[in-house]
Amino acid sequence: QGPVCTNLGLKPGQRLTVKGKIAPNAKSFVMNLGKDATLLGLHFNPRFDAHGDVNTIVCNSKKVEEWGAEHREAVFPFQKGGTAEITFSVNQSDVTVHLPGHQFTFPNRLNLSVFDYFDTQGDFTLQSLSWE
């Protein structure tokens, strides 16, 4: 478990940029954005080799203990031992995830008007966090 941020206050039109280092022997890492630890609007989980997925980004949402349907992205711009820069742009109805050379959107299934919570877990070391 990496740092946990609360009271972020990210609203539609704002974005959060995360920079960090991926472990040389990484299996997977996670970034969660939501209202708090129980209401996750976006669970972002790049998997190098975990849970039966290889080089796949799996996204989901979580409402208390209930996960939604998994969304898989085939584009995988991450490298073990490398650095990563990911920007999450909050929109009215979804979150746009900006990756190196690729972007995709994930629906705001919980209809969160503000994203207050962010955490990282797994084989990722957070180096900087910025929002605008």
Automatic annotation (TrEMBL):
Record GO cellular component, one term: extracellular space
A molecular function GO annotation: lactose binding
One Pfam short name: Gal-bind_lectin
Keyword Hydrolase set for record: no
Domain of life: Eukaryota
Record's keyword annotation contains ATP-binding: no
Domain Galectin: 2-132
Keywords annotated in UniProt: Lectin
Record's protein name: Galectin
Originating species: Toxostoma redivivum
UniProt lineage: Eukaryota, Metazoa, Chordata, Craniata, Vertebrata
Gene symbol of the encoding locus: Leg4
